[in-house]
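Notes, p. 3: input format for complexes.
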Amino acid sequence: MSGNLKLALQKKGRLTEKSLELLSLCGLDIENYSERLVVSVRNFPMDILFLRDDDIPEYVQDGVADIGIVGENVVSEKQTQSLILEKLGFGRCSLLFAYPEGKEIKKIEDINEKTIATTYPRILKEYLRTNNLNAKVIELRGSVEIAPSLGVADLICDIVSTGNTLMMNKLKKSFKVFDSQAVLISAAGELKDERKNDVLRDLLRRIRSVKTAHSSKYLMMNIPKESLDKIIGIIPSLKSPTVLHLADENMLAVHAVIPSDKFWEIIEDLKSAGASGVLLLPIENLIQ
Ligand code: ATP
Ligand code: ZN
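Output follows (288 residues plus adenosine-5'-triphosphate):
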């Protein structure tokens, strides 16, 4: 194989599309990857390996891949010496306890002496140990949510995002063990190849820029001249807003980059202060 940086991605699953989308927002032009194990990136010295997500931490540790994108839940469960380089903000989910009717878990001690089915035995056992709880752990490969109705376990400890699967199986959410999202990992320590290190630094810079851009929006509006101080006081801008003259000399245009989630909090105040023609635009990249 080439001397390119090797990135492991989940072959087919919940993280695949979002991972590829992130890379594409980073400006990487990825070859059509359908059903191939390795594809190269046309405009970046990187190859992508498509693997089962459970194998990614180990392949990264063994140097088969230099870096990987995988859920924090998998990283923790595999207990490899992986280094989390960056949290990626997608693939969010939680590992939590869920119980069927009649097996209520009101306080965490109610777990004592119960049988718990999970696909995350290591994380669960660690949790039981640190909380001084004593329960029997049953390790399953999948379909944990049906274990209580089969009489295999009293409750389950499983990954949940929306909670739909739990609802369908008449299970109720209880205590949370772990919050997870997709992360970029490498093996512990720097990459030995200096050229690969440079490529990795470039990739990380691009990923961070995409992340900031996505949590920010470009806000534009027109305001009466006399409202300027008031408007500037309302805008939670990352930098000082841009103020432009308009043909109508009683009016100004104000532009600013704001955190996306603040827009709905400030829009009414902006309007009361006289703002009109308010526009909110997405930002593709943001270098700070
Ligand atoms: P593979 O065939 O690669 O082993 P998988 O079935 O183990 O796939 P997926 O279900 O595709 O894995 O989930 C991949 C990752 O997505 C999980 O490890 C977790 O980090 C994240 N994730 C987000 N939401 C959920 C969810 N509702 N259920 C399971 N995983 C989720
Ligand atoms: Zn898996």
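The longest helix spans residues 194-214.
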